[in-house]
Design a protein that fits this description.
The complex is a heterodimer of chains A (61) and B (355). By secondary structure, chain A is an alpha+beta fold. Helices cover 18% and strands 36% of the residues of chain A. In chain A, strands 1-2-3 form a 3-stranded antiparallel sheet, with helices on one face. Chain A is globular, with a radius of gyration of 11 Å. Chain A starts with 5 loop residues before the first strand and ends in a 10-residue tail after the last helix. By secondary structure, chain B is mainly β. Chain B contains 2 helices and 24 strands. The two termini of chain B are 37 Å apart. Helix content of chain B is 6%, strand content 40%. The mean pLDDT of chain B is 93. At the A-B interface, strand 2, strand 3 and helix 1 of A face strand 18 and strand 21 of B.
Chain lengths: 61, 355
């Protein structure tokens, strides 16, 4: 009953190493950079919505 | 309170394990509010004053504010005002305010074990409505809950309420850096999450059946401060933090906002295409935080200045973040840059490691 509203998500690469750095997502209308950390509540919610099939995280540009 | 009663309470607090640092609640006096002072309305799930967040899903709208109306000895409260009433709450609708304590701070409660401790929850509350209100304690998975009730006797009058309950000996209660214990104040939830009060249940309840639903009355208000949760059966006087700075630091474990009130500035360097600045958090955060920015920032390469087109998180840990600065000026490999608030003093960098 307390789902966070996520309208878009995309992986972002570290601009120096080229490795995946974070996910840029629009969360409750705010653009946020979300680290790939399961203890981060935004990342956990992104993964929960991905598993539920309600959100797709786009590949990095 | 008589001196004899005060000494007895002190003895109880000592027996229960602590004469200081008794409360599991951070910012219980509602003095820290890094996100602002007025939320009209906050988005569903958003934090308001530090460490307290709220949810609202239905036809009604609740406004939140850090109020300066507070009982004697306090300077702030968290005030909720019904902007749009919901007089026909559907089963799945929800309106509640919640605090989440980190598991690392909850080990003293031994919840989910045979040694689970009795604990006492106390707070000052004031409302334009009277009657029996409710709330609930919950575990992280919200599959264990205990619904409690409290009565507001007089409208628009500060009253201190106390709830003492036995700790839950069942269920899974986390003692790591995730949610250890939730406390939800029911402001008008649907029937699907209401139950009777006074016992632990294997359910995710948020309030009691028949209790007052604030959201049902237009312009109704509800305020709270002095929130304290301590081991034992005694509600000791509210333990104010040692200082404002101490309480701010405790809040910054979960949320850190840089800028917005001055000329926040941070130096960095660049490669051939963009700049980089490092942010050092004032305290170790609970987990790697999410990052967002707002307002205006200026990047300066010491020969020109401009507004970045984007500021992204490049690397982050619980202690530092490296931000990449896109656009605004031309970048040269190895040169220094400076990122600072635009003259509007509105720029801010926000790091969120809330539970």
């Amino acid at each position: 009953m307390d789902k966070i509203n996520i309208t878009s998500a995309q992986y972002i690469n570290n601009t120096m190493t080229g490795e995946t750095a974070c996910i840029t997502a629009v969360i409750d209308g705010v653009t946020m950079s979300v680290p790939l950390d399961p203890a981060n509540r935004h990342y956990a919610e992104i993964m929960r919505q991905v598993e539920a099939g309600t959100l797709v995280v786009a590949e990095a540009d | 309170m008589s001196k004899a009663r005060g000494l007895a309470d002190l003895g109880n607090a000592y027996s229960d394990g602590a004469l200081s640092n008794r409360s599991l609640i951070i910012n219980g006096a509602m003095t820290i509010s890094q996100r602002g002072t007025s939320f009209s309305p906050p988005s569903n799930g958003a934090y308001v004053v530090d460490r307290f967040h709220q949810y609202q899903g239905g036809g009604g709208v609740l406004y939140y504010e850090q109020s300066t109306d507070a009982p004697s000895g306090f300077i702030n409260s968290l005030k909720v005002t019904v902007n749009t009433a919901d007089s026909s709450i559907a089963s799945g609708d929800y309106y509640y305010m919640r605090y989440e304590a980190e598991g690392l701070d909850c080990s003293r409660l031994s919840l989910g074990t045979s040694d689970a401790q009795e604990f006492t929850f106390s707070f000052y509350v004031k409302s334009s409505l009277t009657g029996t209100f409710s709330g609930a304690f919950q575990n992280a998975a919200v599959n264990r809950s205990y619904v409690f009730e409290y009565t507001i006797n007089s409208a628009n009058t500060w009253e201190r309420k106390t709830v003492t309950i036995s700790g839950d000996t069942s269920g899974t209660w986390l003692i790591n850096n995730s949610v250890g214990l939730r406390v939800a104040f029911d402001l008008g939830n649907g029937s699907s999450v209401r139950s009777s009060s006074g016992s632990w249940a294997a359910a995710g309840n948020y309030g009691s059946s028949g209790s007052v639903e604030l959201i049902g009355t237009a312009s109704a208000t509800w305020q709270i401060t002095g929130v304290q949760l301590e081991v034992g059966d005694t509600a000791t006087p509210f333990e104010h933090p040692r200082s404002y700075g101490d309480e701010l630091a405790r809040c910054q474990r979960y949320y850190y906002r840089l800028g917005g009130s001055g000329r926040a500035s941070t130096p960095g360097a660049s490669n051939a295409s963009q700049g980089y600045v490092d942010i050092f958090f004032p305290v170790t955060m609970r987990t790697s935080p999410s990052f967002s920015n707002g307002g205006g920032f200026t990047v300066n390469n010491f020969s020109a200045a401009g507004t970045p087109s984007d500021i992204n998180l490049n690397v982050v840990s619980t202690t530092t973040a490296e931000l990449s600065i896109i656009g605004g000026v031309s970048y040269t490999l190895g040169n220094s840059i400076l990122l600072y608030e635009a003259f509007t003093n509105s720029g801010n960098l926000k790091f969120d490691a809330e539970l």
